[in-house]
């Protein structure tokens, strides 16, 4: 299950269309058998081994184009994607397309090449441990060499360019196709229109002379914050990037801002709603050309970046993105209702169903550790239940646009018999997001304890993946204490075992209240003795900064008991969170 995380989209159709477009399907040479010991899991293991994969001691620092160009051999290869330089030397033998293919991007800004082959690959996760630093495009010598307003003298053209010059030239071409956005603050007016400015001369000439799909990223702006305290609402910035087929609008909410969001196309405009910390802002883009659905929405929890990817109705490179309006922040007064279509029904245990629900109005992402409510009228009164959507990488069949809910069936329940009997195509009404969990609280956390019972595991899933994948600070320990009645009741057991095998920072302890006599693990209900027996008396404590954190979720009695018991450990109140429906 884990490898799927590293592919941003699993749309087979898109993959095949793309491969046909660039001729990979007709070229079996591109399929590469990896050497033993070079699977994705081996790569993740190497990344977690503590070995310095950056080659520069792991200290992030800016890289110039000339410096990038100098790292272009199999023994020392760097590559840049979307303004970030990675040392790919160690990754070469793990690359599923083969080292030679990957070397095509060595020493240059390979954004365009990468996007042409496999834009769905989540390169920033895969190469997180290989980050050297941001790419600096502002080298005066490089600009002098290739500024179209100052064409090279004839004698220069006749001269054979050196290898390094040629690599810098390639990078400048790629740069014309993908410029690191200049994040510029705009004035504090209550509403602001920003017209995407046209590309510079050099970019225009390169775009016009090229029939390849290109990508351009333009300026970003912070959202105006006039009527609210700055400390309450972090500034919002955005930029965009394109290929001839797609437009990606990225919105930056800030590290650990834990945004939720939704995106839709209404009357030709792309609307992106972003909710952070109880504040809602809407970015409206009236695009240069026509955009169409389906939209994809991705949120990166550590950086707080939101990507919305829209299809262009006609394949074309736009000179500007369109007109952007950023609304001032308004407080989220009431949660939104969303009409969803059931797109898949699966099973996660003998009594728990996984429902995949696709919002009809466009993709929706719920902040980490937050939940939605399902509404239904039963015998004239409204019945409501809370569910935390299960993120990517936990279920065998996943549609990235869907909200997945794990619904346990209670024979006499008011809502669960109805929900577990739903079929593909049926409709469900959700509202949300709800919740009080603040990701910021995990800012300095290095050890995290998840204490869950039954379907109370669902808020923990996203947090567990987040903690194990974050780089700064690196999580040192994640321990899940999972309470269930019987072995058959344990949800996602195989997933936990796989993660524990792959990552020695993670431990799972299953505790059963109604275990068979053959059960080798701990038995019983949550108690102080059990917690100290499993975790050790000293483990749950935090210093001045919240370096240890515990969260609890399960039936109300369980959660309250868990909270009481945690008080007996040396944890500050701020370092404990109870998820309540
Ligand atoms: C920029 C230069 C690159 C080129 C020319 C390139 C080329 C290719 C090719 C030809 C394939 C094989 C497609 C197939 O037969 O299924 C492939 C697969 C793959 N590449 Fe790259 N690649 C590049 C960069 C990267 C980077 C930077 C990463 C991530 C760190 C990456 C990760 C992958 C992955 C995960 C696959 C398997 C994708 C899938 O199954 O959908 N590649 N690449």
TrEMBL record:
Matches recorded under PROSITE patterns: CYTOCHROME_B5_1, CYTOCHROME_B5_2, FAD_FR
Compositional bias of kind Basic and acidic residues: 154-165
Domain Cytochrome b5 heme-binding: 60-136
Pfam families reported in the protein's UniProt record: Cyt-b5, FAD_binding_6, NAD_binding_1
InterPro entries, alphabetized: Cbr1-like_FAD-bd_dom, Cyt_B5-like_heme/steroid-bd, Cyt_B5-like_heme/steroid_sf, Cyt_B5_heme-BS, Cytochrome_b5/Flavoprotein_Rdt, FAD-bd_FR_type, FNR_nucleotide-bd, OxRdtase_FAD/NAD-bd
Keyword Transmembrane helix: yes
CDD domains: cyt_b5_reduct_like
Residue ranges constituting the FAD-binding FR-type domain according to the UniProt record: 335-440
Keywords: Heme, Iron, Membrane, Metal-binding, Oxidoreductase, Transmembrane, Transmembrane helix
Spans through the membrane: 448-468
Keyword check for Transmembrane: yes
Region (Disordered): 143-165
Family: Belongs to the flavoprotein pyridine nucleotide cytochrome reductase family.
PANTHER family per UniProt: CYTOCHROME B5 REDUCTASE 4 (PTHR46237:SF1), CYTOCHROME B5 REDUCTASE 4 FAMILY MEMBER (PTHR46237)
Protein name: Cytochrome-b5 reductase
Organism of derivation: Loxostege sticticalis
């Amino acid at each position: 299950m884990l490898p799927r995380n590293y592919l941003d989209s699993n749309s087979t159709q898109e993959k095949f269309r793309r491969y046909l477009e660039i001729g990979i399907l007709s070229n079996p040479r591109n399929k590469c058998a990896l050497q033993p010991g070079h699977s994705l899991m081996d790569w993740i293991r190497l990344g977690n081994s503590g070995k310095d994969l950056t080659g520069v001691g792991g200290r992030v620092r800016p890289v110039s184009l000339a410096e990038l160009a100098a790292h272009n051999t199999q023994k020392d290869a760097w590559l840049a994607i979307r303004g970030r330089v990675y040392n790919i030397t160690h990754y070469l033998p793990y690359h599923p397309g083969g080292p030679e293919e990957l070397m095509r991007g060595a020493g240059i800004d390979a954004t365009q090449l990468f996007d042409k082959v496999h834009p769905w690959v989540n390169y920033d996760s895969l190469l997180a441990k290989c980050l050297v630093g941001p790419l600096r495009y502002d080298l005066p010598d490089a600009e002098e060499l290739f500024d179209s307003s100052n064409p090279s003298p004839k004698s220069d053209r006749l001269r054979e360019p050196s290898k390094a010059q040629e690599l810098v030239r390639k990078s400048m071409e790629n740069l014309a196709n993908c410029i690191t956005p200049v994040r510029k603050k705009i004035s504090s007016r209550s509403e602001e229109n920003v017209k995407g400015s046209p590309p510079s001369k050099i970019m225009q000439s390169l775009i016009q002379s090229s029939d390849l799909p290109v990508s351009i990223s333009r300026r970003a702006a912070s959202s105006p914050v006039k009527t609210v305290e700055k400390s309450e609402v972090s500034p919002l910035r955005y930029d965009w990037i394109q290929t001839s087929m797609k437009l990606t609008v990225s919105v930056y909410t800030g590290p650990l801002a834990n945004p939720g969001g939704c995106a839709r196309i209404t009357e030709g405009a792309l609307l992106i709603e972003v909710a952070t910390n109880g504040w809602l802002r809407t970015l409206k883009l009236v695009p240069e050309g026509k955009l169409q659905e389906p939209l994809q929405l991705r949120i990166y929890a550590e950086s707080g970046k939101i990507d919305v990817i829209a299809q262009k109705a006609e394949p074309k490179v736009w000179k500007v993105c369109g007109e952007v309006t950023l609304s001032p922040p308004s407080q989220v007064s009431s949660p939104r209702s969303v009409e969803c279509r059931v797109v898949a029904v699966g099973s996660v245990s003998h009594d728990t169903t996984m429902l995949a629900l696709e919002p009809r109005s466009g993709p929706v992402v719920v902040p980490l550790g937050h939940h939605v409510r399902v509404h239904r009228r039963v015998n004239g009164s409204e019945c409501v239940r809370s569910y935390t959507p299960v993120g990517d990488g936990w279920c065998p069949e996943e549609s990235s646009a869907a909200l997945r809910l794990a619904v346990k069936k209670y024979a006499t329940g008011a809502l669960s018999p109805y929900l577990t009997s739903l079929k593909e195509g049926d409709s469900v009404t959700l509202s949300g997001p709800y919740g009080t969990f603040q990701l910021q609280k995990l800012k300095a956390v290095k050890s995290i304890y998840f204490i869950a019972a039954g379907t109370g595991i669902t808020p923990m899933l996203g947090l567990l993946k987040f903690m194990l994948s974050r780089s700064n600070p690196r999580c040192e320990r994640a321990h899940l204490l999972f309470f269930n009645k019987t072995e058959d009741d344990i949800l996602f057991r195989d997933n936990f075992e796989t993660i524990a095998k792959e990552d020695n920072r993670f431990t799972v302890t299953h505790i059963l209240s109604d275990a068979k006599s053959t059960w080798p693990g701990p038995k019983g209900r949550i108690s102080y003795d059990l917690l100290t027996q499993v975790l050790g008396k000293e483990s749950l404590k935090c210093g001045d900064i919240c370096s240890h954190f515990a969260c609890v979720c399960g039936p109300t009695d369980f959660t309250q008991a868990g909270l009481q018991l945690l008080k007996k450990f040396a944890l500050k109140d701020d370092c404990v969170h109870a998820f309540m429906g």
